[in-house]
Design a protein that fits this description.
The complex is a heterodimer of chains A (about 120) and B (about 110). Chain A is mainly beta. In chain A, about 0% of the residues lie in helices and about 50% in strands. Chain A is built from no helices and 11 strands. In chain A, the strands form 2 sheets. In chain A, strands 2, 4, 5, 6, 9, 10 and 11 form a 7-stranded mixed beta sheet that branches. In chain A, a hairpin with a 5-residue loop joins strand 4 and strand 5. Chain A starts with a strand and ends with a strand. Chain B is an all-beta fold and about 110 residues long. Chain B is built from no helices and 11 strands. In chain B, the strands form 2 sheets. In chain B, strands 2, 4, 5, 6, 9, 10 and 11 form a 7-stranded mixed beta sheet that branches. A 4-stranded antiparallel beta sheet of chain B has the order 1-3-8-7, with no helix packed on it. The radius of gyration of chain B is 13 Å and the shape is globular. Chain B starts with a strand and ends with a strand. The mean pLDDT of chain B is about 95. Classes of the chains: A mainly beta (about 120), B mainly beta (about 110). Chains A and B meet through strand 5 and strand 9 of A and strand 4, strand 5, strand 9 and strand 10 of B.
Chain lengths: ~120, ~110
């Protein structure tokens, strides 16, 4: 069965960077996009970026374009989200989610999600 | 960016009631819409994709409809385990965008 397992909680100071990992199993890793979505405390869902694990191509929201880096390692079926220049309003739970099949709409059918990684930004 | 306007933001209904949530897109997104359920402290769960397709394993009391800019999500007979927040999400354009959520409670 499909699983996405994320790295553990992080506490960072403003201005620092954080790198969150998402290990996929139970399916062909290079067959589907992986997305990153975050949720600030008590708030809704916000999309950050996707990665195509097959070719490493990425797309991110304009709002985060200067600060977000999404990478993947096909040898261990892991994708990473790195967010730099952290601010207090980056405090959120960060989720990875499996998206559409490569060649389809990337955001179609986000059907499996990681458990979430809480990131706290505080001085 | 495509704005997704979801309503109501919250509702209270009795067990067995029919519950309907609407989602309006700021531009035509054809049927490129997902619906999710999120219970407190958990990851979102996909219920509906392509606006009206029921995800495998999801009870048939959940359904979705619509196309273009106007979409609906319905729970035909509300059950206690349906207490959650529900989100629509469009995937026709990047950035993917979500509705603001509808919190469903039992009266």
């Amino acid at each position: 069965q499909v699983h996405l397992v994320q790295s553990g909680a992080e506490v960072k100071k403003p201005g620092a960077s954080v790198k969150v990992s998402c290990k996929a199993s139970g399916y062909t890793f290079i067959a589907n996009y992986i997305h990153w979505v975050r949720q600030a405390p008590g708030q809704g869902l916000e999309w950050l970026a996707w990665i195509n694990p097959k070719n490493g191509g990425t797309k991110s929201a304009q709002k985060f374009q200067d600060r977000v880096t999404t990478t993947g390692d096909t040898s261990v079926n892991i994708v990473y989200l790195e967010l730099s220049s952290l601010r207090s309003d980056d405090t959120a739970v960060y989720f990875c989610a499996r998206g559409g099949r490569i060649g389809e709409y990337s955001g179609r059918r986000l059907d499996y999600w990681g458990q979430g990684t809480p990131v706290t930004v505080s001085s | 960016d495509i704005q997704m306007t979801q309503s109501p933001s919250s509702l209270s209904a009795s067990v067995g009631d029919r519950v309907t949530i609407t989602c309006q897109a700021s531009e035509d997104i054809a049927n490129y819409l997902n619906w999710f359920q999120q219970q407190p402290g958990k990851a979102p769960k996909l219920l509906i994709y392509d606006a009206s397709n029921l995800e495998t394993g999801v009870p048939s009391r959940f359904s979705g409809g619509g196309s273009g800019t106007d979409f609906t999500f319905t729970i035909s007979s509300l059950q206690p385990e349906d207490i959650a927040t529900y989100y629509c999400q469009q995937y026709d354009y990047v950035p993917l965008t979500f509705g603001g959520g509808t919190k469903v409670e039992i009266k």
